[in-house]
Amino acid sequence: MTATVVRPSLRLRLAERGIDLRLLLAVPAVLVVLVLFVYPFVFGIQLSLTPQRFTNPFDNYRAFFSDPYYSSSLVNTLAIAVPATFVNVVAAVPIAVRMRRAFRGRRVLAAALVVPVSLGTVFLADGMLNVLGPAGWLNKALLGLGLVDSPVRLTNNWWGVFLSLVVSGFPFAFLLMLAYASGIDPSLEQAAATLGAFPGQRFRYVVFPLLLPGAAVTLCLNFVMAFSVFPSAVLLGDPSGSARVMALIAYQEAQERLDPSMGSAVAMLLAAAQLVFVVLVLGARSLLYRGPATGGKG
């Protein structure tokens, strides 16, 4: 009589080798990232290094920085995206800190603050033109009251793009900061209050340090959105002047001048600028805050 040898299941044998079959659940997500993000990025780099109008692989990049028409788009984009990003985050922090506690009308106010998210860029631009344009309600009111002699230019220039980025970007900054601020333990502030700390001191020494990790992430995400601005620059800005941003240059090169290699080079530089900003912000966060991010959900 021979004993029956029970062979371990495939799952157990793989587990003995440190392989978990549950990792297969991540395969669809990995494929999506590879197809929609990694492959286009690698292809874009390769395309940018095969210039149509030049011979050297890096001539597209050299032309971008040597030609003021191209290089000024980087300055224009930074001049719009950086202020809009900081305005959104700085405005979102105190509002999120105040709204983390329940009060009457809190849900209505929160819903009103995030309404621009549901409007869409084109609808938002049309509304801003009707309100802030030369023939908009605001200028009609100012002219009717005799406060100005001619319409105030708030569209088709730098201000138009800046205001559109603030209106469209603030809801995202607010939602992110609200989620992070809601995770801060209220007992920390109560403990500081019992030690005699004033509200301003409690915010500066207790709440704000715990908000720094979330604020840094919010700053990065908001900047990435603002730096790649395109529709607002066309609809509310001056595409031939202060609103000639990098995304617009990339589109013109690829679609109007039929030079996809130069368009890809501009797009790669746009992505590089975003990456540099993210690295700088996260590096500054690590210098300013070294503790665990246990105070919030970010």
TrEMBL record:
Domain of life, per lineage: Bacteria
Stretches assigned to the ABC transmembrane type-1 domain: 74-281
Bilayer topology annotation: Multi-pass membrane protein
Record's keyword terms, sorted: Cell membrane, Membrane, Transmembrane, Transmembrane helix, Transport
Gene Ontology terms: cellular component: plasma membrane
Annotated compartments: Cell membrane
One biological process term in Gene Ontology: transmembrane transport
Pfam family, one: BPD_transp_1
Protein name: Putative spermidine/putrescine transport system permease protein
Species of provenance: Actinocrispum wychmicini
